[in-house]
Amino acid sequence: MMGKAHLAISTGVTLSILGLNNLSISLPVVAVAAVSALLPDIDEPNSLLVSKTIPKDLIRLLKALMIGIGIFIYFAGSAFAPWNTVIAILAASIFFVPTRTFRNVIMVLAGAALILFGHSFIPWNYIIGCLLIICALVPHRGLTHTFYGVAGWTLLLFFSTHTYDQAIWIAGGVSYLLHLLADSITNHGIRPLPPFQFRLKLRLMSTGTSSGTLLENVCIGLTMVLVWFVFLRGVDLSHLIPS
Ligand SMILES: [Zn+2]
Fold first, then answer.
1. N or C: which end of the chain has fewer CB within 10 A?
2. What distance in angstroms lies between residue 170's CA and the mean position of ligand 1's atoms?
3. What's the pTM value of the predicted model, to 2 decimals?
């Protein structure tokens, strides 16, 4: 399924479930639900979450910067020859590393920096740091689409936020699980419990086809109806109408 569909369906249904159970819905809860909706696809090259967090243009810019740094080291470090040439070639060679690999290196470094130094300026630095590292190291379309992924993410959220707000880890876990359930109705399906070959595949829709897109939009529409039913049905809108 497309990132947009996951974002709308997982987030909408999760918030509706919380609303029906009278759990408080704060901004962090909405944010965690939205991130968790997109998280399982983070190991895909064009994942909505990755491309929004670390845009391709930024990576191109950093790569070009490495060439510049290489040239600078070559000239500025001439007193240390031949080491200036060696380091310059190393720096410039990063330009030729594939974008995906380079992005993973950036994610690991940023994650490690957040875990080590982030606590003073970013709340939840452990969660974001761990996430960046896990996402960079998880094999392609691997562990994220399994029940282990659901359990791991839910536990990480539970231990880092349960003293603060119970709704956060519930929202994250439910939203992540809903992403997997949505994927399991596609022709790709998921393998929720490797090494077991068991595949969850209802084949209700084919991703990428026009009927698949139509069904995605129907699901998004149904989610909107659910959200409206849970949150707006009982709201008195009469004061909006001028008398
Ligand atoms: Zn997915």
1. C
2. 19
3. 0.74
CA distance 68 to 91: 9
Q: Is 165 helix (H, G, I), strand (E, B) or coil?
A: coil
Cα 191 to ligand 1 centre (Å): 11
178 CA distance to ligand 1 middle (Å):
10
Per-residue pLDDT, 237:
60
CA of 229 to the centre of ligand 1 (A): 27
What gap in Å lies between CA 47 and CA 35, rounded to an integer? Answer: 12
Q: Say how many Å lie between the CA of residue 157 and the centre of ligand 1.
A: 20
The one-letter amino acid code at 234 reads G
Spacing, Cα 78 to ligand 1 middle (Å): 51
What's the pLDDT score for residue 164?
86
DSSP-derived 3-state class of residue 63: helix
Residues 6+ apart with CB under 8 A from 108: 132, 133, 136, 137
Distance (Å, rounded) from C-alpha 219 to C-alpha 156? 29
Q: Separation of 67 CA from ligand 1 center, angstroms? A: 36
The radius of gyration of the chain from alpha carbons, rounded to an integer in Å, stands at 22
